[in-house]
């Protein structure tokens, strides 16, 4: 297996790959949550942060790609959950059985399982922006995937780790899963929990749409609307209630790397998949533009596509990543290690998140160190802030 362990980008604490439940850095505490575990691979002994790429290094070897295969099967040899299972005696055939059994359950609940999602040229966008036939805008469409977004990819690697731990006797009981979200991540989490018949608590802001609430109810999730308490510090009250639940024994089934590093494992399959899909017709990827809320998606794409120039995009009504970049003076060529010690000064909660792009209104870019590494690896373009009229 390629993954050998975990290392914190902030304090350099290490966790062996055979260790169950490597959710957070062992030095992370309620008083100091500014830590994030990153993946360590065998070839380079280099961390792959909640985003750090393999700039100047070979990418980990992978299985021969099958354009129709489940991405968690075709990428088995370079996924962290699989390396954990392998280190504890679960061989490749048994891992494939775990993936396929869970995937069958997901199909029964969602109507679709984990398969490669479309990636192709948008002729309308390309023409409107003046591209010739030799270039253009290519779009990765996740709307037909599990729960209608990429979020399920991040969460499935956590679920696979949990099921492997169960079969190894390391998880004799099933604590409830917990997530703080009001959109696609909550829907993906509730879908996977229903497929696995695992109880889940979803912590949402008071302004969550009724439509999402109805769907979460249908999936059997326990929904908790979280009002701000007088004693709450700045930040998302749903995240505070989520953290309280985890402190009481719930499993962080979430897409924020500092809360659960395994979310940064399965998300990389999207980047590897784009790489294969672009290579098939001989397309060269020049830049990849990615929406940034909590940052896990961009961090994972940066890790999986280190040779592609990554451009992070936020809404002007909630742009904590760009603000952190500006506070650092844009001088972050050394990558995440250059700014990690100043996390609390640079990355602070956005006071009033608002935008029609409500799927990326995370008041903090939780996986910002991984996004910074991805940006730095791709020539250091500052995050783009999209105006609200442009978004509309």
In short:
By secondary structure, the protein is of the alpha/beta class. Helix content is 36%, strand content 14%.
Describe the protein's architecture and organization:
By secondary structure, this protein is α/β, with parallel strands linked by helices. The chain has 16 helices and 13 strands. The strands form 4 sheets. Strands 2-1-3-4 form a 4-stranded antiparallel sheet, with no helix packed on it. The protein has a 4-stranded parallel sheet with strand order 9-8-7-10, sandwiched between helices. It has a 3-stranded parallel sheet with strand order 11-12-13. A hairpin with a 5-residue loop joins β3 and β4. α3 (92-110) packs across α6 and α11 (296-304) packs parallel to α15 (368-377). The longest helix is centred in the first third of the chain and has 19 residues, at 92-110. The chain is globular, with a radius of gyration of 20 Å. The model is unreliable at 49-61 (pLDDT under 50).
Which features characterize this protein?
alpha/beta, 16 helices, 14% strand, four-stranded antiparallel sheet, four-stranded parallel sheet, 13 strands, 392 residues, single chain
